[in-house]
What we know:
It is a single chain. The protein is mainly alpha-helical. 77% of the residues lie in helices and 0% in strands. The protein has helices at residues 13-16, 21-25, 32-49, 53-70, 73-89, 93-109, 117-132, 136-155, 161-180, 184-202, 207-222, 226-240, 249-276. Helix 9 runs antiparallel to helix 10 (184-202). It is elongated.
Amino acid sequence: MRYAIKVKIKLTPHQCGTFGLLVLLGLEEPVEEESELVTTIKRAILHMKKDEYEKAEKMLHVALKMAQELQNQDGITYVYDVMANLALTQKQYDKAEKLFTEVMKRLMSNGVKENDNKVLHISLKLAKIAQEKTDLRKAQIGYEFCLSHLNKKLEEGAQDRDTRELCAMTNDWYARLLLKEGRYDDAFIHFKRAYKLCKLIHGEVHEHVVQLLNDMGTISYHRGNTEKTIKYLEKAVRIGKHLPEMDELAMILINFGHVYMKLIKFYSQDMLVSSWD
């Protein structure tokens, strides 16, 4: 069966994990000049959400100049982070890597630890960039670095949404790397971890839960486990019926149909061979 659902990474600032704007800039009671900086950044993010990338880029350069003139170091860091996410969204991987690295350096020079979620968000995206640039060894090291810290946090009782979402995303992205390498057993483990976390965060009726069920069904097929293949794909279809606006639902239904057709063909041949014995 062809692997039908491909990872789509259209990263909005929120999905990318850009830092809380007013919190990072320390503007609970902003002065007039700083208020204008916040407004400019928000306009840039709005352009990103509308896929108006050129306008977003221009607005971010205006914001960067404002932050530099104000000598607002946190503001500069934030603008770099949004710029990095914009570059990643447009698949400008070299540019995104350079900007994310600069953001990480600025954070850590300001006392942020390597296990802080802000650093782990960036580490995850650097791992994804390495994967897109086909440096799979570097990508694997990056994913495992993130998971080592995130798993420890969860084991120690962390229940905040940010940690859970970040861990789910890391497991998901790492699983897709393993899947491409044909490491089905390892990929299944990480897809299942992502699925459990996603269900915990969003509940069962959610697009990403359906996608992960489809992924687990696909891998089960490759592993030769017919029972689990049907189990996961049937569940994906059943939940997907409650999500009629889901873009990938049609592909999941096609996936499900392909499995049944192949199984019918297999068992028909098996019965024919048995009749010859």
